[in-house]
């Protein structure tokens, strides 16, 4: 019983995914649910509370490059190819005279099983689609802080996720060329909306 209380967040996320996939393919067996509730009612309630608390999203990072969601009327019409699950995020680069970056990203509280279907179809993962990871924030800040190393260089960002570091390099350095890439077509679609 002690092992179950100390389950890792990743194990609990897999349980959430399993529950979602099983609920789509067949109705739950009421006999098993009743048995679980009768046999271990308190354990089931605690387990359910823990599973519901697990987030697919990391914390908001280190705020090295301040950002906020834009609630613009034009973006809400979604004529630009983005979906209702997407939001426009404004990044303010912390250097004088630098432009603001407006990226399209997945809404924090929104996940869809079609994301996993696409990942299975193309044999890719969806980590770049989940959120703007703190490591991307750190890499972008590092690139901004060391802009001189990119002068007259061609830069490629592989597995970019939302491409924050690549866009920072393109916007605030003197790189001769910047290529931003990712293996997930949904992520590439978000990048192309910039």
- Say how many strands there are: 5
Q: Please state the structural category.
A: alpha+beta
* Cα radius of gyration in angstroms: 21 Å
Output mean pLDDT. Answer: 77
Provide the spatial order of strands within the biggest beta sheet.
1-2-3
- Could you tell me how far the N terminus lies from the C terminus, measured between alpha carbons in angstroms? 50 Å
Largest sheet: 3 strands, antiparallel
Runs with pLDDT <50, length 5+? 31-39
Order of helices and strands: HHHHEHEEHHHEHEH
How many separate domains?
2
Shape: elongated
- Number of helices in the DSSP assignment: 10
Strand content: 5-15%
Considering DSSP H and I runs of 4 or more, what fraction of the residues is helical? 40-55%
Structure description:
There is one protein chain. 21% of the residues are buried. A three-stranded antiparallel β-sheet has the order 1-2-3. The model is unreliable at 31-39 (pLDDT under 50). β2 (86-92) and β3 form a beta hairpin. It has 194 residues and is α+β, with helices and mostly antiparallel strands. It has two domains: 2-53; 67-192, no CATH class. It is built from ten helices and five strands, in the order ααααβαββαααβαβα. The chain has helices spanning 2-5, 9-25, 30-39, 41-53, 73-76, 113-122, 127-130, 134-145, 164-172, 185-192, and strands at residues 67-70, 86-92, 100-106, 154-157, 177-180.
């Amino acid at each position: 019983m002690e092992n179950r209380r100390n389950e890792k967040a990743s194990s609990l996320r897999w349980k959430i995914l399993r529950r979602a996939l099983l609920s789509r393919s067949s109705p739950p067996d009421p006999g098993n649910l009743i048995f679980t509730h009768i046999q271990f009612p308190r354990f089931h309630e605690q387990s359910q509370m823990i599973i519901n608390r697990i987030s697919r999203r990391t914390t908001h990072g280190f705020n090295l490059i301040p950002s906020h969601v834009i609630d613009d009327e034009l973006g809400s019409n979604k004529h630009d190819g983005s979906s209702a699950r997407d939001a426009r995020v404004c990044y303010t680069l912390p250097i004088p005279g630098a432009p603001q970056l407006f990226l399209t990203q997945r809404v924090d509280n929104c996940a869809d099983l079609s994301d996993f279907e696409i990942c299975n179809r193309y044999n890719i993962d969806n980590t770049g689609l989940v959120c703007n990871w703190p490591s991307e924030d750190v890499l972008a800040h590092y690139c901004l802080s060391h802009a001189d190393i990119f002068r007259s260089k061609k830069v490629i960002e592989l597995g970019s996720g939302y491409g924050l570091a690549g866009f920072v390099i393109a916007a605030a350095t003197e790189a001769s060329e910047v290529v931003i890439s990712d293996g997930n077509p949904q992520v590439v679609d978000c990048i192309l909306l910039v």
